Amino acid sequence: MNEIKKIISKETNTSKEWQKKIKEFENIKIKLNKVGPIPTKKRNNYWKNYKATIKDFYLTKNIFFKNLKKIYRENIFKQEDLINKIEILKKNKNLESIKKEIILIQREWKNINPVPYKINEKNWKKFRLLCDHFFNKVDSEKENKLTELKNNEEKQKKFINSIQSKSQENNLDEILKKWKQLGSKKDDIENQFEKVVLKIIKSSGLNEENSRTKLFEFKSQIMDSVEKNKKISILNKELDILKKDVSTLENNLSFFNEKSKESELLNKVHKDIKKNKKQIEKIIAQKKILKN
Question: Are 79 and 116 in contact (CB under 8 A)?
Fold first, then answer.
């Protein structure tokens, strides 16, 4: 009887542990039933304790498996809910925007347990196929984009080569429109293009500064309202930084005395103020062009 009470008192939290516990319990029960005659005086008390112990064991076992079935149902529902979420998300064409959501859902899945083995295997297979399908699609789209970017870059380089021989600006508006149609560009490609266009503008007799202003005017003409507003926002941020720098530099002038008038540091402060003010004028002019 002590052995059976020892088994019952064992802490048991999983289905696997309970299966082991039931097996041990049944084995000892068989042994107890084979025990020889019990003295008459002790017989009633013995069977009373035995029956109570057996009853407690089966009651505890039934409560555990009843609760386990409830947990199983809840976890199966959670798995099915996540599968449905993936099904809905896969309809979204903006793959990058839902990539993080898919990863978070995968993490959620890992935390769902316990689930009956066969159902878990079935749900996992379905869930994994959906996730694999999504990430294969992401990889495929990335590959397509890289191919597209490479092709665009080749077209952009060819276009730059085709306009290098031009020395007049009479067709610049058309050149910039075609350039815009060639999609996004790397900074080095964009800089290369602008150098060629500046050379074409300069060939009309304009200096560097006026040529750059002319180029900005041409570029603004092919911008839509969204692009213009975005550029104005960028210029406003640059303007704020420059104005603060000028204010700081002008305040610093008060720290120089008469003896400092010829110092290199003072001259540098004046040069920086002049340079920043010139850039401020340039940005204000660019904003004016964009707003017209």
Answer: no
